[in-house]
Automatic annotation (TrEMBL):
Protein name, per record: DUF3298 and DUF4163 domain-containing protein
Gene3D superfamilies xrefs: Fervidobacterium nodosum Rt17-B1 like, Heat-shock cognate protein, ATPase
Pfam family of the protein (one): DUF3298
Protein origin, superkingdom: Bacteria
Species per Swiss-Prot/TrEMBL record: Flagellimonas profundi
Domain Deacetylase PdaC per the UniProt entry, residue ranges: 35-135
InterPro entries (UniProt xref): DUF3298 (IPR021729), PdaC (IPR025303), PdaC/RsiV-like_sf (IPR037126)
Signal peptide: none
Residue ranges annotated for the DUF3298 domain, each copy included: 167-233
Length: 245
């Protein structure tokens, strides 16, 4: 009897772990393939379940794609497919006026990088070239509360936002070799107002909460993105949703 009860308990635990994970399918979108068409390739996860959090994930990814691809304020562009078409039409219009315009391109890749019972984080990497000296690459983190079924703003991740920001600044200075008593821009950074601030993108990862300053956010394009990972055992006290480690 004990052996059977043990087996049932193990199966129950495995079942709970499986049920706590959201189900996804990969979706790939591509633009028109022609000589005068931009290169567009999009790979994103599509949440399958009929739940508020799945709807929030799919809606947010759709909005991110529209934001990256659309150059207009046209409210009729409300799907990724329409955004692809808008990007293509914008390129063709420019190409008509400037025949020597170099081909535009955009790639967008998204994946789930963290999930527990309370939160799920999706990392979205994008690269766009629409003329000029170089393209622009960026990383975005989308954090979702699985129980509330909604996307979270950065400040909603923390129970003690001020404490976390102070801790992050200390760690940032150590990593980037900025003296603790010096101006935050003393070594060449470009923080607005000469004051440390958290990046636009903060996400949960398996190694800890990751902060990423994209190109131009606090440094030059040549410096690339600036990343900082803070382990959960050091920052759990600041988080609103604690992580087991």
């Amino acid at each position: 009897m004990k052996r059977y009860l043990g087996s049932i308990l193990i199966l129950s635990l495995l079942s709970c772990q499986t049920e706590s994970k959201l189900a996804f399918e990969p979706i790939q979108l591509q633009g028109e393939i022609c000589e005068d068409c931009p290169k567009i390739e999009i790979n994103i996860p599509n949440a399958l379940e009929d739940t508020p959090v799945s709807e929030a994930i799919n809606r947010s990814l759709n909005e991110e794609i529209i934001s990256i691809l659309s150059f207009t304020e046209d409210k009729n562009i409300d799907t990724a497919e329409k955004a692809l078409q808008s990007f293509t039409e914008s390129y063709k219009e420019v190409k008509t006026k400037f025949p020597d315009e170099v081909q535009w391109e955009t790639t967008i890749d998204a994946e789930v990088i963290y999930e527990d019972r309370n939160i799920i984080t999706i990392m979205l990497n994008s690269y766009s070239f629409t003329g000029g000296a170089h393209g622009y690459a960026s990383t975005s983190y989308l954090n979702f509360d699985k129980r509330q079924g909604e996307e979270l703003e950065n400040w909603e991740l923390f129970g003690d936002l001020d404490g976390f920001e102070d801790f992050a600044e200390t760690k940032f200075r150590i990593q980037e070799k900025i003296p603790q008593d010096a101006n935050i821009n003393a070594t060449g950074f470009m923080f607005e107002g000469d004051s440390f601030h958290l990046p636009n993108n903060i996400g949960y990862t398996k190694d800890g909460v990751k902060l990423i300053y994209n190109q131009y956010e606090v440094a030059s394009y040549a410096d690339g993105p600036i990343e900082l990972i803070l382990p959960y055992n050091e920052i759990n006290l600041y988080l609103k949703r604690k992580v087991k480690f």
